[in-house]
Amino acid sequence: MSQDRKGRINYRCPNCFAKEVDVDLLYDKKKDEYYCVKCCFVGTEADILRSYEQNKTKYKLYRIMLNLLGPANVNSSWFQFRK
Amino acid sequence: MKMLLNLVHRPEMAPEYIACQSHGESKAVKNESFEIFKLQQDMAHQAGLKTTIMVTYPSLFEPEVVETIKAHHKKYGDEIGLSLWGMNCPHFNKEFETEEVAFWFLSFEKKKKVVNGAFTRFHDKFGFYPNSVSCYYIDVQSLAYMKSKYPSLKIAVATCFEEGVNVFHGTNNSWYTFLEGGPWAPWIPSKENLYCSASDKTDDLGVVAVPHLTRDMLLSIESRNDFFASHPHGILRAMAYDGQEMPYFYNLTDQWVLQANYNHGFSYYMIFVGPGWMSKAGRWQASYELSVKAYDIALKYLAKLKADGFVEDMTMSAYADWFRDNKKSYKEPTIALWEDVLYGSGRQVFWYLDSQFRVLIDPHQGGAIVDIRPYVAKLDRPVGADTKYLANAMYPYIINSQHRSGFSTHYVGEGSIYSCKVCHKGEEIDLCTCRTKGRYENRENGRKLTLDPVTIEFADGITISLCTKFIFTPEGCIQIEREIVDCNNGDAEITLREYLNGTYGTNEYPEDLRGVKLLIANAEGQTTIDYNYDCKSKTCQYPFELRAIVPQVNTKITLKPVIEADSGTIKEGYLFSPIYKLSLSKTIKKGGKTKVCLKIEKAE
Questions:
Q1: B240 chain-A contacts, CB cut-off 8 A
Q2: ipTM surpassing 0.90, yes or no?
Q3: Which of helix, strand or coil describes residue B491?
Q4: Gap between the Cα atoms of B508 and A82, Å rounded
Q5: Are the Cβ atoms of A23 and B339 closer than 8 angstroms?
Q6: How much is the CA Rg of chain A, to the nearest whole Å?
Q7: Which DSSP state fits B198?
Q8: Is-contact B82 B118, C-beta < 8 A?
Q9: B329 close contact with A: CB closer than 8 A
Q10: Is B258 helix (H, G, I), strand (E, B) or coil?
Q11: How far A38 CA lies from chain B's nearest CA (Å)?
């Protein structure tokens, strides 16, 4: 069995990433699966991408531009300014 | 309201990420890296933004790079500074006999050799010495040496705000930037410790310091803040973007503009992106195209803010001049009042910093003080291979709720935090359980943070509304005032017990508290406890002072009642709860107030 390498896209382990830890996955070409050397994650590219999307849901505002400098916000209660 | 911008680029001949991916094809790496640098410069110029180019040591051996930088300096007015990061190359390894990647970890003798070698080669290539230098961290001894030997030096990128334990963990325990406890905004360092603001002209190091990047002031304490900063590729790394859009970058940047409201109309912002972040191979899940797009989004947004009058771009040395000209005094504090713009929690944090201390107040925990760094102690903590502290460039805390627990996690009780217990008929409610928000005022007799009143309900139906104010006085005190502004029974007696659970350290692990001395004094005399993990405590009535002396960090912490307290207690902990506790109690009714003064001083 030859050594495994990082994949075409250098994905990080989604389980470690959920804990904010960057660990590059290795790719087993024969099994067409990715795995982590730090934790027990093993999965396909689809599994990884699904986990990434799931992880993003914790950022409830990541799609929202709050327009904090807009006239509607500058004087709102969102911020209390020094008088 | 204006945000002053420094945009910094760093030509590298072997950025670590490209070098890793290319399997040592150095010529290809050099070419790719140089092309990325030129692309970054082009993007900045197209956006109408000035840059500061931080030249790395290997770049000084590349005539084409040097000539390009000279041309940009001449045509666009870009500043040429010297980077003390990215120095490794065969020339560097041979000349200085080291493979160390972090300048600040070298022995002091080697640091001086590197400084002299790099400054001299810089002068040979450009005909002048740099006004600006940069690194993730520069120790105060090295910065003082540079200033004395090369007086043209005005400004340094000298630390990364709160890049420490969380970033170390996030990088699979591999990135040795132990840099917590410093300022988040530009400051004039003390001659004694880089992180401490100079207290007066005699203490002024002679160099303006700025932090590397501009961070999210909330996520800096709960997350790894390389993810959440003015580095668009950090946001890609955090996956906090939406397809080809980056709303979080806009929200973070806007909130930094708004910080000007608390700091005499001005805030500071820095973008500093090395070429490795835009490599052809992409970075993790982000393609090359997305990496370039992210940088484009960032620069175009800053250009828009400039056009709208919110941003003014300048070179680093121009900023140093501006900062010197506009700083009100050495005593002037720096303020940040920050609200979550990513998780949607509504959480707000308040930061205060001056030459005495750096303090973090968490209105989300009822106004608990969750971090204090005693700058007044001006601790002598050199780092590097020849020092006691080695890689630990953190400035110690005396309270830190993130690393050392805060509000009670289990039956052992509270960890390191300053808060208040509100008590009635045997029931105790910690203000940490009362979420609120604050507003800041800059007044002549002190800076004031006023929290919105919180409601507390007791089991017997008594309900009170409690308001908390923090006043930072010119004498270096934090006055904490609480008032029962409403109660459904005017006769109900409520006891407020202020408590400070102190410790000291730089990371999550406990340090040896033996040697700490606790003291309580009233009109009848004083009593002390020498810390020995024995659970001893002393209580007295009508105390006028409680004190903890922590010799390990040369700090004296004093808690005094401004309005007379009924009783006070000092208490040592035990090994499963390694803290020292100072507490003051007073019973009041509706309309009643308590007021205490917390002072942090250098221990004699």
A1: 56, 59, 62
A2: yes
A3: coil
A4: 35
A5: no
A6: 20
A7: P
A8: yes
A9: no
A10: helix
A11: 9
A59 closest CB neighbour out of B257, B283, B343: B343
Contacts of A17 in chain B (CB under 8 A): 239
| Interface A-B: count of C-beta contacts within 8 A | 104
SS3 sequence of B370-407? EEEECHHHCCCCCCCCCCCCCCECCCCECEECCCCCCC
d(CA B573, CA B281): 54
Residue A63 to residue B243: CA distance in whole angstroms: 9
The string over B497-516, giving b where at least 16 C-beta atoms fall within 10 Å of a residue's C-beta and e elsewhere, is bbbbbbbbbbbeebbebeeb
How many angstroms separate the CA of residue A79 from the nearest CA in chain B?
A: 8
Core vs surface per residue B112-127: b (16+ CB within 10 A) or e: bbbbebbbebbeebbe
Q: With CA atoms as reference, report the closest residue to B160 among B88, B233, B85, B101.
A: B85
Task: Sort out which chain A residues have CB atoms less than 8 A from B440's CB and list them.
Answer: 80, 82
| Structure tokens that stand for B541 in this block | 């009535």
Q: Kindly report, residue by residue over B239-279, the tens digit of the pLDDT.
A: 999 999 999 999 999 999 999 999 999 999 999 999 999 99
* CA-CA-CA-CA torsion sign (B228, B231, B232, B233): negative
Q: Residues for chain A: how many in total?
A: 83
B124 CA to centre of own chain: 36
B494-to-B479, B540, B563, B589 alpha-carbon distances in Å: 21, 20, 16, 6
Name the residue facing B239 among A9, A56, A82 (closest C-beta): A56
pLDDT tens for residues A23-61? 999 999 999 999 999 999 999 999 999 999 999 999 999
pTM, entire model = 0.96
